[in-house]
Amino acid sequence: MGATAMKTSKVWRPRAASSHLFVMFYITVLLLFSDLQLSHSTRSMSSKNSRLESEAMPSTMEDVESDFLSWIASVGAKSKSSSLAPITRLPSSVKAVPQVYYVDVAGFGNFKTVQEAVNAVPDGNSMQVLIIVKPGTYRERVTIPKSKGYITLQGAGKNVTFIEYDMNAATAGSTYDSATVAVFSDYFVAKDISFKNSAPAPPAGAVNMQAVALRITGDCAAFYNCGFYGSQDTLNDDMGRHYYKNCEIVGSIDFIFGDAQSLYKDCTLNVNAATYGSVTAQKRESSNKNTGFSFVGCNLLGSGQVYLGRAWGPYSRVVFAFTFMQDIVIREGWHNWNVPDRQRTAYYGQYKCSGPGATELGRVAWSHELTDAEAAPFLTLSFIDGQNWVTEP
């Protein structure tokens, strides 16, 4: 659907401190920031490769690559050329020490709102900008336009720093426009901060009640120790390459949705469904696209009964690996969005998952229990070309 359309082509139908410490904290943040991201000029490719190798499966990677290249033609897991633009060298003006703005809802910073700080970043920005957001709840909607790249939002912890609003599709005009925070720029980073949409949870069968906490459309975005809180359609992982590490994502129906190419590492997926729901609605629309969601080392828990994913797009692609699943997963695991043809083209898989909800017994016949070779491309930063742009803090 277009950028202004609602995601409503299928309505869900259930199946039955002191000042000294304050200063020291921010000094520490500044010292750590240079190691947060965009440090191509200070990190060698060899160090990145060694990090990737340490994350890799306990298999001979030469054998895995050989098997994978022969397998790729039939399932289209990841082609040699990305459907997204190649990642180019970062501008020389991107410095290790950023421009810093302080946001404090109580008025003890440069700005009282996050949007004011974003507005202060010049259009066409090509330097790192660190926006430090002090503890508190910032009741506002924030938009970071395409022209304001290289912004990092640094909170004081996902349990104490919140950006919150309560629009839904009905009041905003569309699902996408309901987002509390919308990021359109590239090389965005968020750390230790939460995004929340506090609109009421929709009752069963309701329409136009989708309420997005964060929409991310920019390329090469990373989220560390962040929270995403909502109900239906919490996280619009819309497009681009994204990395989520140690994040918590809470919702009930399709609460991670979109057509991004994203790796979720060590995240908690917390379901708050009253009855039935679904974790993902991935929208890949062509076998030529590299998009998809990969969940590695995550925990799936909460309430209700959920599908792991629903095929919003005909080539929808989602993989869960090394993930613990509580007994909240519907036995079939996956749903075809009531379009039987999508059973032939969607790609859904599990790899070495655990917990009572991870059993393959009863899974739909068109899902996959992945082999080592099939799982390999989904497990590390290479899935999102992250070796070229992700630097973990």
From TrEMBL:
Pathway: Glycan metabolism; pectin degradation; 2-dehydro-3-deoxy-D-gluconate from pectin: step 1/5
Subcellular location: Cell envelope; Secreted
Keyword annotations: Aspartyl esterase, Hydrolase, Secreted, Signal
GO molecular function term, any single one: pectinesterase activity
Transmembrane segments: none
Primary localisation category: other
Pfam families, A to Z: Pectinesterase (PF01095)
Gene Ontology CC terms, in alphabetical order: extracellular region
Domain Pectinesterase catalytic: 106-386
EC class of the enzyme, as a word: hydrolase
Superkingdom: Eukaryota
Keyword Hydrolase attached: yes
GO terms of biological process kind: cell wall modification; pectin catabolic process
Active-site residues, as the UniProt record annotates them: 254
Catalysed reaction, written as an equation: [(1->4)-alpha-D-galacturonosyl methyl ester](n) + n H2O = [(1->4)-alpha-D-galacturonosyl](n) + n methanol + n H(+)
EC number: 3.1.1.11
Database matches in PROSITE patterns: PECTINESTERASE_2 (PS00503)
Keyword Calcium: no
Family label: Belongs to the pectinesterase family.
Name under which the protein is recorded: Pectinesterase
Organism whose genome encodes this protein: Ceratodon purpureus (Fire moss)
